[in-house]
Write a structure and sequence with these properties.
about 400 residues, alpha/beta, Rossmann fold, ten-stranded mixed sheet, three-stranded antiparallel sheet, 13 helices, 13 strands, about 30% helix, about 15% strand, globular, AB_hydrolase_fold, AB hydrolase-1 domain-containing protein
């Protein structure tokens, strides 16, 4: 983690936060903790109606003030603005993120640095995805485990992080280092890392690169990905390499999401994949304009580099020599047959036995009735399996 401490000293954005449940009695808290999560964020609020939102307003170093945008919808809570002493330190924008907090979390890296940080989990998306992929699932976790908070990020070149300029190659390792810098900046110590597909290798790379700010023990969940060779999905599943190539032929601005969906389907991609891809389009036309216009929110050239790195990166050494205090969990989707070879399963089972003798842990899980999109295909089953990490 060389460079992380010095990284905290410079900056160009400010934050403020309001939360609102402080004067509730313990009994009333228990009554609502399955219905409420607090979300702090650095972009537009989720359009949900049962949560209390505090929005981080980004500013650059030339601006003198910041705004707090808060909305309370359908749920009556006591609002208490936490007082800050002095100005909030200017900090560099590393990645766009959402912090989904359980109802019993009483902490903010901005407001009260004297309190120990609550247990934190980091949720990482795959190639061409974004933090919004985990939004509903994270809120469900926060409701069930109100002492926890959940950090959702847009990895470099994806979503709102695509506009944040990054140095160096766009690789699995650099994406992992970005997340490590972010958690150091937020002063949180993740105890659980959950990564889907490409994000799974990012989580493993975080363990490889840093003793801090990762806790010991730390649980790592690699969802439907192996540490080494990337095998393409079967019919009806995603083929990221082919998808990236096809998207590179499209204009940067388009007039219709439906037109892009139809074009993808005609080229052989599934309807589900096509509809998922166009979530990366953002409307750019002016309000009131009769002509609609959308632009892509990702950096496709950078994503192509990241996917090449994903195919080339081999992290078996972390699994077969898992550090003490680290528990690595692999989850194989039952219908994701083409991504897993017998040699992968044999190596993971061998690593299970070795890790048990060395103070670490490796475990294999199977999620039934699910293809590669595990958090969409069988969210209930995934929730049951992951819940063991938050008890």
């Amino acid at each position: 983690m060389a460079g992380v401490s010095s990284f905290l000293a410079c900056g160009c954005w400010k934050t403020s936060i309001t939360v609102g449940e402080s004067e509730l009695r313990p009994s009333s808290i228990r009554g609502i903790n399955r219905r409420l999560a607090i979300t702090t964020r650095v972009s537009r609020p989720f359009e949900e109606d049962m949560f209390h939102f505090a929005r981080f307003a980004l500013t650059d170093s030339r601006r003198a003030s910041h705004k707090l945008v808060q909305s309370s919808i359908r749920m009556a809570l006591v609002d208490e603005r936490l007082e800050r002493s002095g100005d909030v330190a200017n900090l560099p924008q590393i990645l766009a993120y959402d912090l989904v907090q359980g109802a019993l979390v009483r902490w903010s890296s901005v407001v009260d640095k004297s309190k120990p940080d609550p247990p934190t989990a980091v949720l990482l998306h795959g190639i061409l995805g974004g933090r919004k992929n985990w939004a509903s699932f994270a809120r469900r976790l926060a409701q069930e485990f109100p002492m926890w908070q959940f950090l959702l990020v847009d990895l470099r070149c994806h979503g709102d992080s695509a506009s944040i300029k990054k140095k160096g190659p766009n690789t699995v390792a650099s994406a992992a280092l970005d997340v490590l810098k972010l958690v150091a900046q937020l002063r949180v110590t993740p105890r659980v890392l959950v990564g889907h597909s490409f994000g799974g290798k990012v989580a493993l790379s975080m363990v490889e690169q840093a003793a801090k700010p990762l806790a010991r023990p730390v649980r790592v969940w690699v969802l439907d990905a192996t540490p080494g060779k990337v095998r393409p999905g079967g019919d009806g599943e995603d083929h990221p390499g082919e998808l990236i190539t096809f998207l590179s032929t499209l204009p940067k601005q388009v007039s219709s999401k439906r037109g892009i969906v139809n074009a993808l389907i005609q080229d052989g991609f599934s309807k589900d994949v096509a509809q998922w891809v166009v979530t990366n389009l953002r409307q750019t036309s002016s309000p009131g304009s009769s002509l609609s216009s959308f632009s892509w929110v990702f950096d496709l050239k950078g994503i192509a580099e990241m996917y090449n790195s994903y195919e080339e990166t081999n992290l078996w050494k972390i699994v077969e020599g898992v550090p003490r205090g680290v528990h690595v969990n692999f989850l194989k989707a039952e219908r994701s047959l083409h991504r897993w070879a017998l040699e992968d399963l044999q190596r993971i089972h061998a690593a299970e036995e070795q890790a048990a003798d060395e103070g670490g842990g490796v475990q294999m899980h199977v999620l039934e009735d699910a293809g590669h999109w595990v958090h969409a295909d069988n969210p209930d089953g995934l929730f049951r399996i992951l819940s063991s990490s938050f008890q």
